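Please predict the structure of the following assembly.
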Amino acid sequence: MRLTIYIVRRLLFAFLLMVGVSLIIFFLVNAVGDPIELMMAETPGVSAETIERMKVHYGLDQDPLTRYFIWLGKLLSLDFGTSIIYNQPVGSLIATWGWQTFKIQVPAILIALAIAIFVGTTAARRQHSRTDFAVMSGALLGQSLPAFFLGILLILIFSYTFDVLPSYGAYSTRGYLWGSVVADGLWHMVLPVAMLAFFNTATLTLLMRSNMVDVLKLDFIAAARASGIPERRVVYRHALRVAVIPVLTYLGLLVGLMLGTAPVTETVFTWPGLGYLYVTAIHQLDYPIIMGASMVIAAMLIAATTLTDIAYVLIDPRIRLE
Amino acid sequence: MSDSSSLNASVLPDDAAVLARHKPKGIWRQGCERFLHSRTGMLGLVLVALVVAVAVFGPFLAPFDPHDQSAMLDPGAKAPPSWVHPLGTDRMAYDVASRVIYGAPTALIVGLGAMSIAAFVGVVVGGIAGYRGGLTDEIIMRATDFFLVIPVFVVILAVVRLLSSMVVNTPLESIPYLNLGTIIVLIGIFGWAPIARMTRAEFLRLKNQEFIEAARCIGATTGDILFRHILPNALPSLIVMVALGIGGAILSEAMIGFLGFGDPKAVSWGQLLFFNYESLKVAPWASLAPGAAIFVTVLGFNLLADGLSDAFNPRSGR
């Protein structure tokens, strides 16, 4: 019962957050001036009549509050309007480009999680050893290495020096690798996924290690060892189950961080994802995309944190709701 | 945990005789002593000191003026490193080494400026929430949650770009470094939430402790309790957050610059990357040097924060 109330409250709060975000995004974009006039200020030589016609075309002749509710109403039916630059529905643009973002971020998280669990556990089992020190130093360094700088280094090494991996795009422009779309797509994914995975691995490993260190000191581990269960099984069955919970719940935050910095990481590889779409839209002041894409990014972020909070309570029996 | 408790024992002698001879050391003194023994913390301090030194003595160190394009004639643009241009020249024939050196003060101003704003707002908001409690606390913490989950970087990008197009053809256009100022203020305004959360937790923890009650008993005013008793005790944790935040702010500015939304008049590392990234294949030094500068600075502040948190909260982490 308490759990249901908690979940309902959490979902309500997520909904309120979304309303808040939509207010911020809409009024930020509109408070700084009329979008059409902003665009035209940078492209001289457009007649006043044309500007007026464009305003009517995009429905900008109404007052902001009415437009906010019209925009919100359309959002609810997943209608994000029409892009000014691409002249395509923003919804389908976001879906196509968003899929590319999904394609590199999900494998990156899974790879990072697998490496972090193994390396973090190994370091925790040998606490204060040289292995542990090396892992800790490496993770601290990796945490500070900006993802986009790592991307630049990867391109320099693997694309320019050894010329084995492509440095930009999701597919080759002239002929696929081995004539296969799948192979070509995977080939292009290697560097972006490596960059994102490295970035996540550092943080997750540190978290995994410190949790494992604490869990391995608990009484039930001593009991398991005393009852003659093999050490490997004690660590990977008994301890891991407890130690991995905070790591899993941290994934929600990590997804948010990755999505939030997607504009940068995707620009490095000219990767046709949501972040790159967003950056080009901002450069060209394509405001339906700016608003649509930031709403989608915010929605995914809020969904990730909300699910994390709920999952935390569901998974960890030690947490009691008051 | 075991290593820190042994450290504790050496710094905090519980032997009464020893206590009588030596005055007990305050949290600052203890923290400093532990910090001096922290390898990561000292390395961080050295890196940060290096960046600060470069920023202060930059004008005397830099071989060229940051706006000097005279190299266009002699070694030409995108020239590889040489004795005259130790890090080569970039796409526009600027001396890379000089530009990287002149980028250091910009980075530090961004980091310190943004974090001063964030720390001020965060401490005031978090302090009020923690000290007042009740409904005030509830409302403020919901607002803080809001700032913690919105995609800050995405919002900042849009605002910077929209503002820069809004000032076209207005008198505001002539304000020097308006764009950089906007970026600093935005990073600060959107960065206070974690500090507010930490301040609140610290104030909640401290306000019911005995020494606060004692202060109240001898008639200390609310202001005295807040600023002379609670805040100084909350400072160690806050300083760690601020050190981390400075690195984060510098990184944010670099990312904004890398995407081409930086201040065109300022010399910043992110912007150097933006200008030179497309010639990465021909002139990698022009992208590597500012990238490495960002890495070293962020690493320095992260390590410093790590060392400080070990020094001031010996029982947490590790």
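Residues 90-125 of chain A form the longest helix (36 residues). Residues 90-315 of chain A form a domain with the MetI-like fold fold (CATH 1.10.3720.10).
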